[in-house]
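Hi support team,

I submitted a single chain yesterday and got back a structure, but I'm not sure I'm reading the token output correctly. Could someone confirm the output below corresponds to the sequence I sent? I've pasted both exactly as they appear in my results page.

Thanks,
R.
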Amino acid sequence: MANVNDLLKAKPPRPVLTIERRETVLAATQHMDQNSVGALIITENGRMCGIFTERDVLRRVVVAQRNPKETLVGDVMTSHMACCSPEMSIDEARATMRTHRIRHLPVVSPEGQLVGVLSIGDLNAYLANDQEVTLHFLNEYLHGRT
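Hi R., thanks for writing in. Yes, this is the structure output for that exact sequence:
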């Protein structure tokens, strides 16, 4: 069965996007927009300390009527975040996202190193591809071509 590491290897190589917690919400959202991502990992002195998502922008900035030019991302980030290991199964990662109602899941090595971020889109693309392959083989079997 495939695991998170397999899924990360299948993604196009791209560095994990981060921003320091003392940056402004405006800088963070501009960084997200420029890179077409829905979340950034927040760091402090090079260590992961939170995640900042589109949902954080909506709930903690827009609804709270905070000024994005003055609000620090560290003040509105999600600091208690769910993470997974590279060895976790795809099904477990999906269950973690569902349980915590999140769309982005940082992947952390056993040594505590951030190695990637899975999005719900990554998981959906993997599952759609897996289902297409299964349907193809079932169709081939039913028509006696295997």
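A quick pointer for reading it: The first helix runs from residue 4 to 10. Let us know if anything else looks off.

Best,
Support desk
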